Amino acid sequence: MSRVVNCKKFGHELPGLDAPPLPGKRGEDIFHSISKQAWTEWQALQTMLINEKHLRLIDPDARKYLNEQMQRFFDNQPTDAAEHFTPKTPSEG
After folding, report:
1. Within a domain: residue 43?
2. Could you tell me if residue 31 is inside a domain?
3. pLDDT band at 68, cuts 50/70/90?
4. Does the residue 41 lie in any domain?
5. Poorest-confidence range of 17-21, 74-78, 84-88?
6. pLDDT of the residue at 2
7. Which of 10, 62, 74, 81 is deepest in the core (most CB within 10 A)?
8. Are the beta carbons of 15 and 1 closer than 8 angstroms?
9. How far apart are CA 7 and CA 10, in angstroms?
């Protein structure tokens, strides 16, 4: 049976992650309060931001920016969007 967490992002119980996604306290906090679904959605947004904004993860400012965006995402606050990204419509499948 999979682990269930009360997901901070969605406000109800959902399947949790199998392991902390990051080292340290931050990873443990995410492990205990963020669902697999919310983590997967964050990873998609993070990938778009990295690609769209040409972020270099070796740059401490880029990592700080992504951490801030991640916190905003999980707190249901507005996040930056990939400016040239247009989501597919259902008819585009």
Report:
1. yes
2. yes
3. very high
4. yes
5. 84-88
6. 81
7. 74
8. no
9. 5
Q: Model-level pTM?
A: 0.84
Domain that holds residue 63: 4-78
| Number of domains, the chain | 1
Instruction: Report the CATH number at residue 59.
Output: 1.10.3880.10
Is residue 23 a contact partner of residue 54, using CB atoms and an 8 Å limit? no
Which helix (DSSP H) or strand (DSSP E) does residue 60 occupy? helix 60-74
Give backbone dihedrals phi and psi of 7, rounded to 5 degrees, phi first. -70, 125
pLDDT for 25 equals 95
Question: Strands, E, within the chain: which ranges?
Answer: 4-6, 13-15
* Tokens representing residue 1 in the block: 């049976």
Note whether residue 85 is domain-resident. no
Radius of gyration of the chain from its Cα atoms, rounded to whole angstroms: 14
Mean pLDDT of the region 13-40:
96
Euclidean distance between CA atoms 32 and 75, whole angstroms: 15
Confirm if 57 and 50 have CB atoms less than 8 A apart.
Answer: yes
